[in-house]
Specification:
Blueprint (H helix, E strand, L loop, with lengths): L8 E8 L6 E8 L5 E5 L5 E8 L5 E6 L5 E6 L3 E8 L7 E4 L2 E5 L17 E5 L2 E4 L5 H8 L18 H5 L5 E4 L2 E4 L3 H9 L8 H9 L15 H4 L39 E7 L8 E2 L10 E4 L15 E4 L8 E2 L3 E3 L2
Parallel strand pairs: 10-15, 14-18
Antiparallel strand pairs: 1-4, 2-3, 2-7, 4-5, 5-6, 8-11, 9-10, 11-19, 12-13, 14-16, 16-17
């Protein structure tokens, strides 16, 4: 007798999500074992929940978007339902940075610590903007993406193990902000869909200007002090978890002193991705520079818990491939001045 395989597929539910600012929307999927997963929903996308047979002809629950992309597969006993919550007003704390002109790169207070790629120092003029008071935390990343990629876990720890591509995205629908295209699968696109705002990565020039304290700058070597221990978590001051052994790992944001603008952790803790492609400096005066149009590496600034104090200086700059992930790579947000 010939065996006949019947493929089952029928729709359980369809969810269509309308745009509304400051609302976070998810599908919550609970299994009979009490475990659950949160799947973030994007505004304007229709989601379909289907009961289908898998390759072994076992009934499973699958969730698709309106392009028929499979977003998740769960046991047939799973319960799926939409939830929505309002974001707190202070979910993302931003600091106003008044526009002005400053000298970027190896300036006198940096002493003999400068590397060649911090030179030549040059004049930069910037328009006003806003920047995150803290690096993006793991709690904030999870609220938007429903996942936590970090190696060191803690709601108030900076999110790390995130690449530039994970932040900006690489595929799907897109939006362009200040010359950078942010894609649907990235954190910033999803955040902007939720909030209706235009958050973005800071340019390298914006990052250094904010780290220096804009026109309130006291000309410090680090962001907020000439004493690195006042303002930065770095290799030599990470608290030890085991007596006699060095400390290891990220630290809660906002636990060191802020800089002149009230911004925390711009020196140390995690390297922060900037929007720009990496390029060498010239002595040309610039206005609102956004870096070259193309490149191989994206800019990182600020040093980290894993590095020595010299890399936490406000002028130090580094770079890596946009797909690179490490447990000392994080970021903070910027947006236009309101």
């Amino acid at each position: 007798m010939r065996k006949v395989v019947i493929t089952l597929s029928f729709i359980i539910a369809v969810f269509s999500i309308s745009a509304q600012n400051d609302i976070k929307r998810h599908l919550k999927i609970e299994t009979s074992e009490g475990e659950y997963e949160i799947l973030n929903l994007s505004a304007g996308v229709q989601y379909t929940v289907r009961a289908e047979a898998d390759a072994n002809n076992t009934l499973v629950v699958r969730i698709y978007d309106d392009s028929d992309n499979l977003l998740g597969e769960y046991p047939a006993t799973a319960v799926v339902y939409p939830i929505e919550e309002e974001y707190e007003e202070d979910f993302l704390e931003m600091v106003d940075v008044e526009g002005g002109t400053y000298t970027r790169g190896c300036t006198a207070e940096q002493g003999d610590d400068c590397y060649d790629w911090e030179k030549p120092a040059h004049e930069v003029t910037l328009s006003s903007f806003r920047i995150g008071k803290y690096p993006v935390t793991q709690e904030q990343w999870f609220e938007v993406m429903g996942t936590n990629p970090s190696y060191f876990e803690g709601d108030n720890l900076p999110v790390e193990s995130v690449s530039w591509n994970m932040i900006a995205g690489t595929e799907g629908a897109s939006m362009e902000i200040k010359g950078i295209t942010y894609y649907e699968d990235g954190f910033i696109y999803q955040l902007n869909q939720i909030t209706g705002k235009e958050y973005r990565l800071p340019t390298e020039a914006e990052w250094e200007y904010a780290a220096r304290g804009d026109n309130q700058s006291q000309v410090y070597k680090y962001s907020g002090s000439n004493n690195v221990d006042d303002v930065a978590w770095y290799w030599d001051n990470i608290p030890s978890q085991t007596e006699g052994e060095p400390g290891f790992g990220t630290q809660p944001v906002g636990t060191k002193q802020p800089n002149e603008l009230g911004i925390y952790d711009m020196s140390g803790n995690v390297w922060e991705w900037c929007a720009d492609w990496w390029s060498d400096y010239t002595d040309e005066a610039l206005t609102d520079p956004a870096g070259p149009a193309t490149g191989s590496y994206r800019v990182l600034r600020g040093g980290s818990w894993y590095d020595n104090a010299a890399l936490a200086r406000v002028s130090y700059r580094d770079h890596n491939f946009p797909g690179s992930i490490n447990y000392y790579f994080g970021f903070r947000l910027a947006c236009s001045s309101e």
